[in-house]
Structure formats: structure tokens, C-alpha cells
Amino acid sequence: MTDVWGFILQTLYVSLVGGLLLLVKVILRDKLTPRWQYGVWSVLALRILVPVSVSWQYALLPLPLWVETARILAENALPAELFVWLYRFYLLGVAVFLAWYLFSYFRLGRYLKRGEAPSLELTEQIKEVAERYGLRPCQAVVIQGLPSPMVCGVFRPVLAVPEGTELDDHVILHELLHVKYRDALQNVFWSICRAVHWCNPLVHYFVNQIGNDMESLCDQRVLERLEGEARRNYGLSLLAMSNDRYPRAPGTTSISNGGKNIARRIEAIVRFKKYPKGMALASVCVTVMLLCAALFPTSVQGLEAAGEGAGPWTQAKADASLNLVRCTTVAGAIDTYAKGLIEGNGDYFTLASPVVSSFTRTVPIYDYTVDYDAMEANYFDTGKRTEINLSNLAESFVIHNLRTQSDGTLAAEIIFLLGEITDDPLLMEIEGEEYSVTGAVQIPIQMEEGEGWTVKEAGPCILYLADLAKINATDLWLGEDPYHPGVRYEAVGKSGTVVKESLTEHYIQTRADPLGLFGVQSAYSEIPNPNAEFSYVREASLVTYTFSGSPEEADEISSVILQVSNMKKNQFKPHFSDHFPFDKGSWGSEFGNHHGSYTSESVGMGWDGIIQMRDHATYEYKDYPDHGGAVQIRWDGEVVDEMILEEVTPNG
Amino acid sequence: MDKKYLIHAMGSIAWGYVFFYLAINLGTIDILPDWVLFVLVVKALKPLSEVVPSAKLLEPLGILLGVLYGFQWLFKVVGHPIQWYLFTVIVSVLVLYFNFQLLTNLAEAVRLYGYEEERKILHLRTVQAILTTVAAIPLPWEEVSYLYFGLAIVHLIVVAWICVVLFGLRKKMSLAYEAPMEE
């Protein structure tokens, strides 16, 4: 709490938690014991003691966002100095409250010193009650004009008794129990809390309720030590004290706390027998759940949108969210960076990529064609360059070849798919006027985790031109062959070598709009999600086995089965299938995942020693096999080789 | 109080648990809605409180939870499930207490009728309360998903066991109730 906004956030959280506790306490009022009713306030105590920071994470309600929004609006409308003075005024208030408490405490001490020593009978009575109930007796003093008995003092408590009053044994028991459980010390703590939050009327209300609950708990303790008729008499003693005057000061406790509260306490005494047994565990469990909810941030702030014509509150909220939000996931960082570029929103872009780049780039132009009949892709540097503005052209993006590098950072290529290009004469000239022009821009990126995930551009940005008539832009990169593979794996075995080239596409979970009875529909949103997760991964791979023996040896083999088994990095043993019912196929585990694939080919005389297998599969992100896999080679049905694929170098 | 009402109440509560802990979704409609537990329990509280008076304390809470879960179910049906964390916290806390006291009262009723299942119900009640509380602790469950999965399985087993005990008790009490009548 180093400024007025920090205090406002803290006191709002205290109010929220206190309100939550009051609501639960009201609902469970006659169900859980007074012990729980008072003890649950420890949740509030912890909330007061544990400072809240302005952060993208929050508990219960997005108070950091609301406070930050208010701050932006207020600081735009009013001079900044005003808030400095407000904070000083708040601190002064705390000092005044604490000083007043200290003054009251010492004044009470002086007042007690002027009191008279108790009579011998009273002293004996106190001793006798203490002995009967196994408590420690305390000093007593008789005060003229005191409205009701009270205990004063934290370190050396004294029982102050009104002059001319005959004290009931139960009243003495009540006060001695206050001494035993150090209620005066707890009272000091709550008074300090009241002082720290002096300008929050809710906190004053909470502390008053805490005082009442403390008295009710003391009643509970008294009743637990009494039997039968004595309990009824205790209620009558309380009734006799139901005047409205009662002393209240820090470091003191008083048996009387006002007529209305005494009526409530008497009702509780009547209900005493009816609490269900075994509620201690339930009390603890309820308190733990409330504590976890009150103290631990369980939600993260997302980005708020402000469209054109948004009002001041909405705009301020959007700005506030930008101040608070961090990209908490890799997918979130990439989503925020990419949409920042596509939407031309500098704030989004900067959120994910603090190293400033521009939307407009001068890029080399690569011509790119795919011939599906020949299963070939060709691309080459045209030697030309052009300037493009991604925010004008890019329509969507895909993420290729996400991988962990040796230094622990993550790398990928982000491919921005462009719409039709109609106003760039250079691009249209390269592609030919009779064709519609589109393309994709590839930017290599690197992701690092600091306070949140950030994205850095890690290589040159390249524009790949494509002919719309021949290529569907969204299928540009993932077809039968991984035309732009990201990772290469190799294995060397006794029978030959295996090379696997793999291209992956990671998909980010988009927002879902439910359609009621018929399921959910995904929808692209222009607003990035800094907390996004990957939903699934598509992979295309090309596996090539090259036999290392002589041509004569190759001629003797009549059939070869090349089988690839998927593996995860933490998996030690691959799993191969023994059934190959078709020429090509794949199999799944018992959970239906794509577990591996195979190709079975008849070779024989003139075999060139090469077997190739193309595969593509889609995995749920959590099931994606992040290891290169393992390969099994069979000649004429017999296993001759098993190899583990190791990553070589990523392809550019 | 005619014992047959208590027997019927026992069965209602057991069926209520089936509705609460099982979910069969057709699109966005859960055809075993959670709020049914509270409707059945509130009906069962009258005969139960004749045996265990403190069970009456549950009635207002049962009605409140029935209404809250009813709203939750309705919002989910129209495709806008309530995703307000504060609401979830309050409801979870109240449900934990509700289940705890309900099973405590049931155990007491069972004891008063001289059946030995009292201890079993109390132990199951305790385990269920602890599991519910542990699951609410904000640990990084996604990093120990196997632990969370294990807890969920154990919780399901406990709930299933509770239902088995209650249905078994209902049968036992029915047989004991019908036998003297036949005599």
C-alpha cells in the first residue's frame, strides 16, 4: 500500500472478504457453533495482513481491474498531486486513530489505578470461581460509575467491577475466560485493523460484529462449564445487564455489549443443546474453503475491448487491462502478438512483444508454387523486395514448428495468411496479371518466460507469393508433404538409415459461442486471449528409409514394412504393432490417439533401397508426441531393425 | 411417527445423491439435474426430523441450495452457464456443510433405530468432506493431474458407497418393517 490506490484495492478486498464471511455466517448462523462464528474471522485477519498487489491475477472479483480503471479515469480528470495528498490524509487518519487508542488505553489505566481495592469477599469469590473451573485468578479493582464488569489490560489483566455491585459467579467465570483466551490482546489486533481501515465504514461494522461474536464465544465457553439450571441462571444474569451503556476500549472486554446483542446471546444460550454433534470437522473444512477463496488468486485478467465510440469507462477499462495483463501462456503470447499485428493494435502487439517493431516491413519476395499432381513444391528468392503493411493484408495466422531450443526458449514460425493482393503492381507483375495473387508472410519467433511470456522476432520476415488459382491459402503449408518442414530426425541402424522430416501446426483454442441444445461453435475473435491454450496439433511428416546393404542383398528382400511409433519425451519404450492388414495404415492406443503408422511395400528385383512414407495426423495438444519417435523395419515379416529417431537440426 | 416415512426418506436421499453426483448431458441439458437432490432431501427432512430434531435446521438451507442449483441448471440449458467464481465459492461451502450435516443426522437416526451402519456413514461423511476441501485448495492441479484424477476417483467411490449403504439400509428397514406386519 504505497499509494492511495494500493490502499483502496486492499480495503476493497477486505470489504469483499468480510462481506462473503458475513453472508456465509448469516446462512449458517444457527448451524455452526459460536466457536466457528468467531474463528472464521481469522480469514478476514489473514486477508488484512496479506497485502494485495495490483496484478493480472485476482481472487473472487476483478478488483485490480476496477481500481486501475478508476485510477486512469481519476488521474485523467484531476491533478496527480491530489492523490498524493489524499494518501497523506489517509496516513494521518491512521496515526490519529492509533494515537486515540493509545490515549484511551493509558487513560483507562490511570482510571483503574484510582479505583479501590476489592473487598475480601470479592477476592475470595474470584479465587473460588477460578479454582472451581481450573482457571487462573486475576486482580480486581472496584470502580465508581462503571456500567458493567470488564477486563482491562493485555499483559497484566485486571477485572474492573462496578462499585456497589454483587457479582454473580457466572459473570466472574465469563471474565476469567476472557483472560484465559487473551481476548483483550485479540481486541487490540482488531482495533489496529479498524485504525488501518479507518475510512472504510464496512470494516468498522465487521469489527463490531467480531466483538459481538467474541462475547458469544465466551458465553459458549461458560455454558460448556455449567450444567442444567446454572445455564438458565447465566441467561438471567445477562438479561440483568441489558443496558445500553457498556465500556469499550482497545485492550478491554466487557460482558455487556448492548441490549440487542444480549437478546441475541440469550437466544444462543437457549439453542445451546441443539447443535449437531461432530461439527468441528465441518467448521474446519468450511473455513479452509473460505480461506483458499479469499487469499489465493484463482483467476487471471483477460484483455478488455473498447470499440469505436466506446464511453470513457469502457475505454479506461480497456487501458487498465493492458496495464495489468500478462501473457501467462505461450499460446497466449503468440495469440496476442499475432492479433496485434493483424488488427493493427499497437497495445496488443506491445503487450506480447516489448521490443518494438512496425506493422510495415520491407520483405524479400519468394515465389512459391505447389504442384499437387507431381507432389512437388517449389519456392525461390525472386531477388525483389517490397513493402507491406501486415495490418492491412494479414487475415489469419498459423503457428508452425513450435519446438524447445537448447537454451530453453521456444521457437516457432508464425505464418500470416494474406488476403487477395490487388494493389501491389510488383507482386502482381511477378505472379502474372492473369492470376489472382495471395501469399503468406513467415516470421521466425522466439518465446521467453519472464514475468509473463513474450515474443521476439528471431529472423528475417519473408513474403511467399502464391497463385490463388492453384493453392488454397489455408492449405498452403500442410498438404501431403511437409513442404516447409521444421524439424529433421535421423536414426542409423544395422539395416540402413531413416530420416523423418516433420512439420507441425499448433492451433490455439478459440472462444466458443454455445448454441444451446446443439453443442458449441468456435469463433475467431479479434481480441487476443493472453491466457490462451493450445487445443490441438496437426503434423505432416515424410519418413524415408534407405537400405544400407548392397543391391544384391536388396534383390533378396521381397517385402519391407516401415513402421513409425510415436513417443513422448518422457517415454522410454516405443510400442510397435504386429498387425499390418493393409498396405498403409495407422493404429491408435486404447484411447484412440494416433499412435503410429506403417507402410508395407513389395520390393524385390531392382529395388532402389528406398521406402518412403507420408503421414499426417491430428492430436489433442495434451496427447501430442513431442519426441521424434521410433522406427521398426521388417523384411519379409521379420523384424530386422529398431531405431530411435533423434532430432538433428531444425530446418529453416 | 410411522417408520415407513423414514424408510421412504432414506431412499429419497440416496436417489438425490445419484442425481447430484451423476451427470448425463444431452447438449447443454443435464437430465440428472443437481437441484433434484435438494428437492428430495427437503421432502425427506420432515420424517427425518421426527427422529432427529436438529435435522430441521437443514430445511431453509436445502431450499436455498435447491433454488441456486436450479438457476445454475437453467442458465446452462440456455447456453450461458454461470461462471462466476464468487457464486461457486458460496455454493460449494454451503453444499459441503449441507452434506456433512445431512449424513450426521442420518447416522444419528440409524443409531436410534439400532442399526450398525452408523459408524460407516460417519466415516464416509468425514472422508467426503475432506476430499471436497482438498479439491478446493488452489494447487497447480494441471501439473499433478494424476493426483487430481485419483482424488476424483476416490470421491466417486465414496459417494457410490454412501448410496449403496443408504439403499441397503432402506431395504433392511423395509424388511424389518414388513416382517412384524406379516406376523
Descriptive account of the structure:
The complex is a heterodimer of chains A (652) and B (183). With 652 residues, chain A is α+β, with helices and mostly antiparallel strands. Chain A contains 18 helices and 25 strands. In chain A, strands 7, 8, 9, 10, 11, 12, 13, 14, 15, 18, 22 and 25 form a twelve-stranded mixed beta sheet that branches. Chain A has a five-stranded antiparallel beta sheet with strand order 20-21-19-23-24, with no helix packed on it. A four-stranded mixed beta sheet of chain A has the order 2-4-3-5, sandwiched between helices. The longest helix of chain A has 34 residues, at 80-113. Mean pLDDT of chain A is 82; it is low at 468-474 and 512-522. Chain B has 183 residues and is mainly α. Chain B is 77% helix and 2% strand. Chain B contains six helices and two strands. Chain B has a two-stranded antiparallel sheet. In chain B, α4 packs antiparallel against α5. Chain B is globular, with a radius of gyration of 17 Å. The interface between A and B is medium-sized, with 34 and 36 residues.
Fraction of helical residues of chain B: over 70%
Mean pLDDT of chain B: 86
Number of strands of chain A: 25
Sheet of most strands of chain A: 12 strands, mixed
Tell me the β content of chain A: 25-35%
Q: Treating each run of at least 4 consecutive H or I residues as one helix, how many helices of chain B?
A: 6
Q: Which shape of chain B, going by the Cα principal axes?
A: globular
Q: Report the uncertain regions of chain A.
A: 468-474, 512-522
Q: Proportion of β residues of chain B? A: under 5%
- Assembly type of the chains comes to heterodimer
E-strand count of chain B: 2
Biggest interface: chains and residue counts? A-B, 34 and 36 residues
Contiguous runs where pLDDT drops below 50 for at least 5 residues of chain B: none
Q: Which value, in Å, is the CA radius of gyration of chain B?
A: 17 Å
Q: Taking strands numbered 1, 2, ... along the chain, how are they ordered across the largest sheet of chain B? A: 1-2
Report the principal-axis shape of chain A: elongated
By helix and strand content of chain A, what is the structural category? alpha+beta
Amount of helix of chain A: 25-40%
